[in-house]
Design goal:
The protein is an all-alpha fold. It folds into 2 domains: 2-159, Ferritin, core subunit, four-helix bundle (Ferritin, Up-down Bundle); 167-325, no CATH class. Helix content is 74%, strand content 0%. Helix 2 (18-43) runs antiparallel to helix 3, helix 3 (48-76) runs antiparallel to helix 5 and helix 7 (162-195) crosses helix 10 (246-262). The longest helix has 34 residues, at 162-195. The radius of gyration is 24 Å and the shape is elongated. The two termini are 26 Å apart. Pfam families: Rubrerythrin, VIT1. The chain crosses the membrane at residues 276-294, 306-325. It comes from Phyllobacterium phragmitis.
């Protein structure tokens, strides 16, 4: 949860100057070009034709970069400010999939298509925030070039039938649903389920008073839900990342955070301490396995790895709460 607050130290996109917008565009094109070359290197042995396509895409990114640098040189000189996507709030983060070997061809295609869509969104928003006619024209041209790119599947030599188009539309809708609802909701469920374990079980074993424990769990769950919901909504307006409405993401994140904590707080409405605690522990295991399932089902995380990470983390936090409560 605290890492979400630290992200708020990033610069909001709408505070960037025209020079900084150009600098951000330059660094983004450089990064994307390197990513495409990394994909080409990872695919060249098994998929040499696909690797060639990614080399061509990297060359396109380099052309965009050169045009942006030339514009910066004309307007602001040779010194380009150091600003990257991780310095700007709401900018879509690139996961280092290109470091994983062997590369999955379907995953690479999906990622590359998302990268082109994100670049289009960036140039559209950037062009709205500059007043210089020459810069605005360049950004608008680059946006149209990104938008007019043929679909990656077509560029790889695949032919689309009407059913394929419908499948692509359904996949786009599914991806948007994951970004707007499932990903924020999963983050909230993980935070609510795990972060409240220590205070709830510490209070339980320290007091052995079920009502007081319930009040601690209720306050921790509601407080965490409000905090996480506001943070999710505030740190990304969705315009650059394409993650959708900040209000919808905030509600999904905050609600699931609260429910994740309430799941093992509600059993303490039962007056008998050991009955309530046994049920709460059982609920915790159900929550953790549900998180692992969602990660596997929607985020394509291998189930055993997701289960190990979630259960281990939950067990450590639970143990910390019990030890503190018995201190």
């Amino acid at each position: 949860m605290f890492s979400r607050f630290f992200r708020m130290g990033r610069r909001p996109f709408d505070t960037l100057s025209e020079q900084e917008i150009l600098a951000l565009a330059i660094s983004s094109e450089e990064d994307d070009g390197r990513i495409y070359l990394a994909y080409a290197d990872g695919l060249k042995d098994e998929f040499p034709q696909t690797a060639q396509i990614f080399e061509e895409m990297a060359a396109e990114e380099n052309t965009h970069r050169e045009r942006l640098i030339e514009m910066h040189r004309k307007r602001f000189g040779d010194r380009i400010p150091l600003i990257r996507r991780e310095h700007v709030s709401g900018y879509y983060e690139r996961k280092p999939d290109w470091l994983v070997r062997p590369l999955g061809i379907d995953k690479v295609r999906e990622t590359a298509e998302a990268m082109e869509d994100q670049a289009y969104r960036f140039y559209i928003e950037a062009s709205k925030r500059v007043s210089d006619a020459s810069i605005r024209k360049l950004l608008g041209d680059l946006a149209m070039e990104e938008k007019q790119h043929e679909s990656l599947a077509h560029r790889l030599g695949l032919k689309f039938a009407p059913t394929d188009v419908r499948e692509e539309e359904r996949e786009t809708e599914r991806r948007q649903r994951i970004l707007t609802y499932i990903q924020p909701g999963l983050a909230g469920l993980m935070d609510g389920s795990v972060s409240t374990l220590a205070p709830i079980f510490a209070a339980a074993f320290a007091t052995q008073d079920t009502w007081q424990t319930f009040l601690v769990g209720l306050s921790a769950s509601v407080g965490a839900g409000i905090s996480m919901g506001f943070t999710e909504a505030a740190h990304d307006d969705g315009k650059l990342s394409g993650r959708g409405s900040p209000l919808k993401r905030g509600i999904a994140n905050g609600t699931m955070t609260m429910l994740g904590g309430l799941g093992h707080a509600l059993p303490y409405l039962i007056p008998d301490f050991w009955t309530a605690t046994s049920i709460a522990i059982a609920v915790v295991f159900v929550e953790l396995w549900a998180i692992a399932y969602i990660q596997n089902r929607f985020m394509e995380t291998p189930f055993l790895r997701a289960a190990f990470q979630v259960v281990l983390g939950g067990a450590l936090v639970f143990a910390a709460g019990v030890l503190i409560g018995n201190a």
